[in-house]
Write a structure and sequence with these properties.
Largest sheet: none
Order of helices and strands: HHHHHHHHHHHHHHHHHHHH
Transmembrane segments: 16-38, 82-102, 108-129, 136-157, 177-203, 229-249, 294-311, 318-341, 361-386
Helix content: 55-70%
Protein name: Mannosyltransferase PIG-V
Number of domains: 1
Organism: Mesorhizobium tianshanense
Keywords: Membrane, Transmembrane, Transmembrane helix
Strand content: under 5%
Length: 387
């Protein structure tokens, strides 16, 4: 369903289908070339395996551990007291399943799988971008050859999260609520905030009900009279509930994924205080913003783009993106840049805005490709803002 507009050419549309499939493939190749050049500039070890290992930074190591060894039962002698439970299981499970068929190093399998997921996410984005070729080119460039493309091409959850998020919103665009519910269930097993997409589903249902002449008060009765809608809503958090049950049976704490956050330095607080502290963390030397400033700016930018989605009457996407920013912001600013760039509705909106004129389109494309090299060097060097 998600790739229908690409794989089903109509009269005269075959060349467009080929272009839609070829554009992200082109950026897969260019992205690999740029990131490998950045890797080669700071490493003396050649080869794709060394490149894949070099890009496996921060949370990537946790996902490799889950994929190879599963979740530990605390306590384990001579191991860290920080468990893997805070990292959700779907993507490590997928990589582990693929590794059974292709028995290569985990990071190699995960890197290729991430690239495939990001490529598929681009194809799903084509109808969501209203078949705007400029916006589509920018979006593909951003994911696969852009300044943060290492997030979408290594063993992190962003590739699968973006793909499933796009599938949910494409299904909602077509009123395919059961497909949206299944994608939502998978999304909730990928990252905790994935469960929040159910609100977008309910909002789309409400909009459809109103378009059919229904009233606000009659909406609950209308939903109860539609088994497909009820199933779509009820199965949306199934991935999260399955993980809670697994943790309860194996660890004894169904909410271990929340309780372990304290070990990572995530403690609930006032998000406005975190933002103010981040913005005020001025650099002591030089002019480049500090890592807390980048994180705070990313959060502010993400919330501003969510407001633009509201102006464009994309209420479900706006609420989902805003909640996905605010929820982690309640603990601290860590990983905020990655969280914001991994929200597909925001990056699609940014691509659409930048494609409005030929000048901004070309400038953004050049900026994306150029920044890919320098930020890849920063990522391999452990720059904290990119965590």
């Amino acid at each position: 369903m998600a790739l229908e507009d690409v794989v089903r050419p109509n009269a005269g549309g075959r060349s467009i289908a080929v272009a839609v499939a070829a554009v992200p493939l082109l950026f897969v190749v260019s992205g690999l070339a740029i990131r490998y050049a950045a890797f080669a500039s700071v490493s003396e070890e050649p080869g794709f395996a060394a490149y894949a290992r070099a890009l496996c930074r921060w949370d990537c190591a946790w996902y490799i551990g889950i994929s190879e060894q599963g979740y530990e039962r605390f306590p384990i002698p001579n191991h860290s007291n920080v468990g893997r439970w805070g990292f959700f299981p779907l993507y490590p499970m997928l990589v582990a399943a693929i590794r059974i068929v292709f028995p290569f190093q985990t990071i190699l399998v995960a890197t290729i799988t991430s690239i495939i997921c990001s490529y598929a996410a681009c194809l799903v984005a084509w109808p969501l971008l209203e078949k705007n070729m400029r916006a589509y080119v920018l979006y593909c460039a951003f994911l696969l050859s852009g300044p943060f493309s290492f997030h979408f091409t290594t063993f992190l959850t962003e590739p699968l999260f973006v793909l499933l998020t796009s599938c949910v919103f494409l299904a909602l665009k077509r009123s395919s609520y059961l497909a949206a519910g299944i994608s939502s269930a998978l999304l909730s097993a990928t990252r905790l905030v994935g469960v929040l997409v159910v609100f977008a589903t309910v909002i789309q249902m409400f909009r459809e009900h109103r378009q059919q002449g229904g009233s606000t008060l009659s909406f609950p009765r209308w939903v109860l009279g539609r088994p497909d809608l009820l199933v779509a809503i009820l199965i949306s958090p199934a991935g999260l509930f399955a993980y809670i049950l697994f943790l309860y049976l194996t660890v004894g704490d169904g909410f271990a994924f929340l309780h372990v956050q304290r070990a990572f330095g995530r403690v609930a607080g006032n998000p406005l205080v975190f933002l103010c502290d981040g913005l005020s963390a001025v650099p002591t030397t030089g002019w480049l913003p500090t890592a807390p400033q980048w994180s705070a700016l990313a959060a502010v930018t993400g919330l501003a783009l969510s407001a633009v989605l509201v102006v464009r009457r994309q209420y479900g996407a706006a609420l989902f993106c805003a909640l996905c920013i605010i929820l982690p912001l309640i603990t601290n600013l860590a990983s905020m840049v990655r969280y914001v760039v991994g929200l597909a509705p925001l990056t699609m909106l940014l691509a659409a805005l930048l494609s409005a004129s030929r000048l901004t389109y070309l400038a953004a494309l050049a900026l994306f490709l150029g920044a890919c090299y320098f930020l890849t060097v920063a990522w391999t060097g452990g720059y904290l803002a990119l965590v």
